[in-house]
Amino acid sequence: MNEILDPPMERDLPPMAARKMRAHLLQAAGRRPARTLRLRAAVVGAVLLVVTSGVASVWDGPDGQTVQVLAMGSGELSPTLRDAAEQCLRWWNVRKEKTGLPGGVRGVSLSLADLSVATERGGHALVLFMNDVGYSTCDLQSAGSNQVPYIGGTTDPWPHGEWLPGPVQRLLLTSTEHHGGDVSVSGRVSGRVDRLVLDHGDGRTTVARLSGGAFGLMTTGARLKADDDPQLVSYDGQGVEIDRRPLFQAEDQLDRCYTTPSGRLIYGKPATNCLPAEAWKR
Q: How far apart are CA 188 and CA 171, in angstroms?
């Protein structure tokens, strides 16, 4: 039973009425209402949202409207990311039916089950689909204040089947500034990769999430700079570094080549010191 000066049960009261009643009762009892109540509630709410469902989320807008999400697989999609993924699939299907694929590119049949990585920053969504045949990327901007809605992307069969250029293959990279700011990165990894980290080049790092042969990462407030030479760094199960490559340098610009166990060159220019290509499995 409540003491006479304790606030009454508020479960069925509207939040605003509950706060006013609590403040009035506490003031009448000689206690000043906490002036930091709203701030504390906001902080607690943010902490809970960050860890919900294993999805990395950060609210940096005053009304929680600017949300950042990194989802690995279709089972982690937020409602807005699920809508974005479904829009991308519809867009690909319509594009194939009406215009066909450019340049004689073979079609890659995709479904929501093929979704590997999805990221969302405000009203901007990036989606990566992968299956045994190939992959598709989709870039979607929803309508909003000072935003023009658009959708675009690319699809390709795997150029060399299950082989990767080493432990990591970056497939999708966006940044908030030219070669800098915050980034969203996704792609695929070989089974040898136990941990993948973005080294910002200034002493800070961002750890990527790995799931089903895919990886994804999203930075927040990173202020990356190309001059700092940020790099993707891979580690095996023993914590040994096995690969390091510049983030903002395309794979066809790397000074490396990769060959299959049979010696067939699949990435890079012919050389005598090629590195081994690595197998990819979902």
A: 7
Q: What share of the chain is helix, strand, coil (3-state, %, to 5)?
A: 25, 35, 40
Q: By the 8 A CB rule, do 170 and 185 touch?
A: yes
* Cβ–Cβ under 8 Å, residues 250 and 268: no
Task: Express each pLDDT in 238-254 by its tens digit.
Answer: 999 999 999 998 877 87
* Residue 158 identity (one-letter amino acid): W
User: What is the pLDDT at residue 23?
Assistant: 55
pLDDT score for 120:
93
Q: Reply yes or no on whether the pLDDT at 190 is more than 90.
A: yes
Q: Where are the beta strands (DSSP E) in 73-148?
A: 115-121, 124-130, 134-141
Sorted by sequence, the CB contacts under 8 Å of residue 201 that are 6+ apart come out as: 224, 225, 228, 229, 230, 231
Coil, helix or strand for 161?
coil
Question: Token pair for residue 112?
Answer: 């929501």
Paired tokens of 202:
């200034």
Flag whether the pTM goes above 0.85. Answer: no
State whether residue 93 is helix, strand or coil: helix
Report in angstroms the alpha-carbon separations of 54 from 73, 86, 134, 169, 209: 12, 22, 27, 24, 10
Do residues 223 and 264 make contact, with C-beta atoms less than 8 angstroms apart? no
